[in-house]
Amino acid sequence: MRKVMITAAAVASAAVLALSGCSGASDRGGDAGGGDAASGFEEGSVIGVALPDKTSENWTIAGEIFTDALTEAGYEPNVQYAGSTSPVPDQQAQISTMIQDGAKVIVIGANDAKQLGSQVADAKEQGVTIISYDRLISDTENVDYYVAFNNFKVGQEQGQALLDGLAAKFPDKTTYNIELIAGAATDPNAAVFFNGAMDVLQPKIDDGTLVVVSGQDTFEQVQTDKWDPANAQSRMDTVLQGFYQGDVAIDGVLAPNDTLARAAIQSVKDASKGPIVVTGQDSEAASIPLIMSGEQYMTIYKDTRKLVAQTVEMIKSLAAGEEAETNAEEDNGAKEVPTFYLDPVVVTAENAAEVYKDNDTLFPLTQQ
Ligand code: BGC
Fold first, then answer.
1. For residue 176, what are the β-bridge partners?
2. Which of 111, 248, 293, 327 could form a disulfide with 87 if both were Cys (CB 3.0 to 4.6 A apart)?
3. Which residue's CA is minimally distant from atom 10 of ligand 1?
4. 106 near 144, Cβ under 8 Å?
5. Which residue range is the domain that position 156 belongs to?
6. How many domains does the chain have?
7. CATH of the domain at 30
8. Partners of 79 in the β-ladder
9. Which atom of ligand 1 lies nearest, measured to the CA of 256?
């Protein structure tokens, strides 16, 4: 269930914004129940940041930016990544250590969103505020805030881009053969991306415009363990061998992020098929040349600098003894979590240079 929280404060702040000529609605966190928000905390306090892994570039970048931004804001950052061998116990232990070290706020990008219940319960007992970062920790009341790009919208944009890309690349076709890939079931975002995309694609599957040739069209069938590109690529290899023999063409692949998009492209190349229309997400440096050449049709820009900056704003409010600003609520299965959503941006070859113009890493890649 997704609904925008409307409170008296929201109405009031909307009125102020309307008067001042600004757009956008925001409100204060309402029933945040956040740690010890009323008393705030001092400069120099420890802020924990627990990140899930380094499988996507956005996580690697986030660690660096958090360290810099929190230091600059006067806090003592403790940024940790779960290791790849046993990420869940790793992350659990890291969070427990952060609590013991007296962290005032712990920012968590969950590796497995269902397995942090006892750690966030401990945090709550110690008066630590928990901010779910990018991925919403599920089935616990002990999450105070959520900050993310709107993931359902990401999925819808991927679905729409797949349709647009197919129509543009194959103007003579009226039906298209496609396959679907989703992320890891342990990451609640993966199902949200998939459901957002299917919100757009399902009607076109139902009316026969899109044909999922393998018949694998449920989240369970298409999910990718650990978001690992090797797993996605091997499923695609099997699907192509099994269902695309001879001159059966594959026209498109719904891929949920850039690492899995590149895996799909490789698999299709290895099977001597293609070219295809592939979606992605994250604006990874390795995908930008593919976007510019059209090998990958689109990606999504979720500027990590903005997401971290918004999180640090939340932390500053909490330090001042205030509630953090939010603009939505998201149901995590146990409560409506006060949420701040940022808007994702669709990127294709056409707008890449414009979208990345203030990004020193990505912009040059659009000029080669
Ligand atoms: C993030 C994506 C990322 C994926 C794999 C998701 O939770 O929202 O940006 O590609 O995890 O790391």
1. 210
2. 111
3. 257
4. no
5. 151-301
6. 2
7. 3.40.50.2300
8. 49
9. 10
